């Protein structure tokens, strides 16, 4: 009997028909930059023939179309798409994303190792090839209360899982530079493997020390200057364009044919509403090309360069012997997927129906104590009050100071300067901590919005003008087991339930998409001016601002953070 490998060879030689042949089109050769008119023959999960004529058991006419390798999203948190891995698969794969490299950092910070196990089980069932990086920062910092703790001993059992690539984004770069023992244990264990980076604005000798730990990738570059220094020092830059963090425009100058071998693309992250309205990585590619980027540079970054950066040596080219992850496009400039193949399988609704389900977890993770309006009071302080300054399109914030109005013995909001209240409420049932402050940039004129998606520890974050509405919004999150809520005048005017760890919906992505549309309208009715008020809200607890400094003690100088204190 002919073995599978022997049959693939016979199909490539042309002795027997291929399983599928795409006929009449052309493919984009990412080595030479040529558009090659040719049949593409597929056997099982791989390409068996190009640059010739083939017969197939199934032949598909793609005349006038262009074939490119499947796109690779090199850094994302599927939880932040608000849907399960199965629904993410069904939502994103039709846009040509055939590989997604995820860090289950969000669910891990709520549920620990059980969250990683949920993602690994899901990755074994999805049609898209989901690869997992093991979350390196749980908790993300000592300044937050997470739902779990993942020391190296809890990560090592997953290290050799077939879906695991390596260690996920190492956000605690001060801990790396100052050799924190917990950081060192994780870095030591993954030496020789892939370690993902996360070091916004780090440069000079501090960057050198960070890279000396064996870290090779970076998705946090927000300027071409920052990216060029990191490329020169051996980093592979993951150009990011998500629903909140939008760095593509700033990094277009580095997306060149010369630098493309050291670039990849990532979303980090996009929600189903934005995907429906704009697309996924295809949106990045279209945008780049329309802004003058050479197609060869951006398509390399979307596939072969990304694959090589993460050691996925079986994909990224339209060539014999390579994994048959293929996207049939209208054109290189249009970048609209008209047909997608994942490991040789044509993507259809029936293909998604063949997947085995994975039971949801973390359905009772919101354990916050009930609150009332009195919990949101801010005592009067002398002088100026610290205010978190939101920067639209970025997850970094600014530390600002204002003299705010006083009402009785409490500091009040200042709507004329777009300054409202913000609070973080511990929701894992550990200590009941509650902290209040002020934020500028949401545009709210009334009401409140709240979320259990609060990077990175995912406590409740609520912003608002009215303390009663803030309390109503926070308490409602407990009633729906997590999600997003909008309240005006004591009434819930919009909500979406995210009961899986307070992060993901149990509903199909279409339902999430439609609900997000209504939720956004409810937030805009309060006066919200941010394009993505809920996702911006989710990043408020992050203790990051530009020009942060590292102290001699090895911790980040807290006064340089836009923290709620």
Short description:
With 565 residues, the protein is an alpha/beta fold. The protein contains 18 helices and 28 strands.
Describe the structure.
The chain is α/β, with parallel strands linked by helices and 565 residues long. The chain has 18 helices and 28 strands. A hairpin with a 7-residue loop joins strand 16 and strand 17. Helix 3 (105-111) packs across helix 4 (113-123), helix 11 packs across helix 17 and helix 12 (281-290) packs antiparallel against helix 13 (295-302).
Write the layout of secondary structure elements.
Elements: H1 4-13, E1 18-23, E2 26-28, E3 35-37, E4 40-43, E5 46-49, E6 56-61, E7 66-69, E8 71-76, H2 85-92, E9 97-102, H3 105-111, H4 113-123, E10 129-134, H5 152-155, E11 164-170, H6 173-177, H7 181-189, E12 194-197, H8 204-211, E13 217-218, H9 224-232, E14 236-240, H10 248-251, E15 263-266, H11 272-278, H12 281-290, H13 295-302, H14 304-309, E16 326-329, E17 337-342, E18 345-346, H15 349-353, E19 385-390, E20 397-402, E21 406-407, E22 410-411, E23 419-425, E24 434-440, E25 448-451, E26 460-464, H16 467-479, E27 483-488, E28 491-497, H17 509-525, H18 533-538
Helix pairs in contact: 3-4, 11-17, 12-13
Notable characteristics:
alpha/beta; 28 strands; 24% strand; 565 residues; eight-stranded mixed β-sheet; disordered C terminus; globular; six-stranded mixed β-sheet
How many individual helices?
18
For the biggest β-sheet, the strand order reads 20-19-24-23-26-25-27-28
The percent range for strand residues is 15-25%
> Could you name the ranges where pLDDT drops below 50 across 5 or more consecutive residues?
544-565
Oligomer: single chain
Radius of gyration: 24 Å
N-to-C span = 71 Å
How would you state the average pLDDT, rounded?
93
* Total beta strands: 28
Taken from the alpha-carbon principal axes, the silhouette is globular
Report the structural category: alpha/beta
Query: What percent of the residues sit in helical stretches (DSSP H or I)?
Result: 25-40%
Largest sheet entry: 8 strands, mixed
């Amino acid at each position: 009997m002919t073995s599978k490998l022997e049959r693939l060879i016979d199909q490539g030689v042309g002795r027997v028909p291929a399983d599928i042949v795409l006929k009449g089109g052309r493919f984009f050769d990412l080595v030479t930059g040529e558009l090659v008119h040719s049949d593409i023959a597929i056997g099982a999960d791989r390409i068996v023939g190009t640059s010739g004529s083939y017969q197939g058991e199934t032949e598909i006419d793609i005349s006038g179309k262009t074939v490119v390798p499947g796109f690779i999203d090199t850094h994302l948190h599927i939880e932040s798409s608000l849907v399960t891995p199965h629904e993410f698969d069904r939502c994103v794969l039709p846009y040509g994303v055939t590989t997604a490299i995820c860090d289950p950092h969000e669910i891990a910070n709520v549920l620990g190792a059980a969250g990683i196990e949920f993602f690994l089980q899901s990755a074994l069932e999805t049609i898209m090839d989901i690869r997992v990086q093991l979350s390196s920062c749980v908790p993300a910092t000592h300044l937050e209360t997470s739902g779990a703790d993942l020391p190296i001993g809890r990560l090592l059992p997953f290290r050799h899982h077939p879906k695991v690539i390596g260690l996920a984004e190492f956000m605690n770069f001060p801990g790396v530079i100052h050799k924190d023992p917990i950081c060192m244990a994780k870095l030591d264990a993954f030496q020789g493997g892939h370690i993902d980076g996360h070091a916004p604005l780090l440069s000079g000798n501090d960057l050198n020390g960070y890279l000396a730990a064996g870290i090779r990738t970076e998705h946090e570059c927000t300027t071409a200057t920052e990216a060029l220094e990191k490329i020169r020092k051996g980093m592979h830059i993951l150009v990011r364009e998500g629903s909140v963090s939008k760095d593509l425009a700033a990094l277009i100058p580095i997306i060149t044919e010369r630098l493309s071998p050291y670039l990849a693309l990532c979303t980090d992250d996009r929600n189903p509403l934005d995907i429906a309205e704009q697309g996924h990585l295809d949106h990045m590619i279209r945008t780049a090309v329309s802004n003058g980027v050479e197609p060869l540079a951006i398509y390399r970054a979307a596939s072969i360069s990304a694959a090589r950066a993460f050691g996925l040596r079986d994909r990224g080219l339209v060539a014999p012997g390579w994994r048959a992850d293929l996207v049939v496009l209208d054109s290189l400039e249009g970048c609209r997927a008209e047909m997608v193949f994942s490991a040789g399988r044509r993507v259809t609704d029936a293909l998604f129906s063949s997947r085995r389900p994975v039971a949801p977890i973390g359905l009772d993770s919101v354990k916050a104590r009930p609150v009332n309006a009195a919990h949101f009071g801010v005592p009067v302080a002398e002088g100026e009050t610290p205010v978190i300054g939101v920067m639209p399109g970025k997850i970094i914030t600014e530390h600002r100071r204002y003299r705010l109005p006083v009402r009785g013995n409490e500091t009040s909001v200042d709507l004329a300067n777009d300054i409202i209240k913000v609070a973080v409420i511990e929701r894992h049932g550990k200590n009941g901590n509650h902290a209040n402050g002020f934020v500028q940039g949401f545009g709210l004129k009334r009401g409140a919005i709240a979320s259990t998606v609060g990077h990175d520890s995912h406590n409740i974050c609520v912003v608002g003008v009215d303390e009663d509405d803030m309390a109503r919004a926070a308490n409602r999150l407990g009633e729906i087991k997590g999600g997003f809520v909008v309240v005006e005048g004591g009434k819930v005017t919009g909500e979406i339930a995210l009961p899986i760890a307070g992060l993901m919906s149990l509903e199909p992505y279409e339902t999430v998409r439609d609900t997000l549309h209504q939720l956004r309208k409810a937030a805009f009715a309060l006066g919200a001016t941010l394009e993505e008020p809920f996702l911006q809200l989710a990043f408020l607890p992050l203790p990051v601002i530009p020009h942060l400094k590292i102290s001699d003690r090895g911790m980040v100088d807290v006064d340089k953070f836009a923290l709620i204190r």
